[in-house]
């Protein structure tokens, strides 16, 4: 089913989240973000450090510390069983409106989150078994014996050999890759409808990273799960995602199918990002960082004197600014600009940018 026919399982609408900047001022870590995740699809959110990816994802589960954070506006509509027939997500739940108690029922059950650092999710003083069982017993109407069998199965699903023995071990007894798998097993044991994966493989070596992403793809197909994948790695996006949102400075600059974004990037910043793709024999450079909402020119990527949203790309084409909106410039391809000028539309039909992903680090 194409995105246009299906209803999203998760729809973030006009989300804005602020944090303090100095004594009395605040900055928008997330500024009017719109994102949709469709059933069984992977939406990748890319962008440099500090662009608001994690704050967007953590907002879905109300994991932003309030204060200092503040949800300024927006909705996060959740519809666990969307159907093609519904024309409006009218019976969707706004996750931002849920009480702590209501949210605890969803967290870990319908929506699970995994982080770059597994120890964020694992408690060092409890065994792996204690921790997985706790999650299962909390969310599923099963007895202890059945919970053990679900936990064992979850560990073996993520490729952990001898799962019964592993249940008795503590996190420090496992390697980094193994801990990552355990965290994924914990997240998947309750068969969530949506997995929020925040850089789940960045800290791992390339082989384990590939194994885990392959595993997620497999589980996504077999368990009917959607994934919101946050990553810096565009190679990972190309191989794992269906659609991609490019974030910068708290805003989504461009959004569309992986194919459209990679073949016809329209926002100048997306072009910068694509240039950082790994090519034959060269690792991708990590993108420059925007520091804590700062807007000093030094913080912007090479080639920009000012933030991209202030760049006038060519006469008549303004990407961004407070009055810019995401415009659909070709089917299923949105770009942040002030207006869908004829020039912007024409850009969509410019010759294709050739995208070739080569294995990282291989000799020519
Ligand atoms: N608890 C917090 N208190 C204050 N500022 C915060 C907090 N959490 C996030 N921020 C700020 O919000 C902005 C967006 O952060 P976020 O973690 O979403 O970026 P990101 O794109 O996920 O970056 P990274 O790839 O490094 O994780 C940053 O400027 C960050 O410093």
From TrEMBL:
Pfam families to which the protein is assigned, alphabetical: ABC_tran (PF00005), oligo_HPY (PF08352)
Keyword Zinc applies: no
Record's subcellular location: Cell inner membrane
Topology term for the membrane: Peripheral membrane protein
Domain spans labelled ABC transporter: 10-274
InterPro entries listed in its UniProt record: AAA+_ATPase, ABC_Ni/Peptide_Import, ABC_transporter-like_ATP-bd, ABC_transporter-like_CS, Oligopep_ABC_C, P-loop_NTPase
Entry similarity comment: Belongs to the ABC transporter superfamily.
Name of the protein described by the UniProt record: ABC transporter ATP-binding protein
Species annotation: Natronomicrosphaera hydrolytica
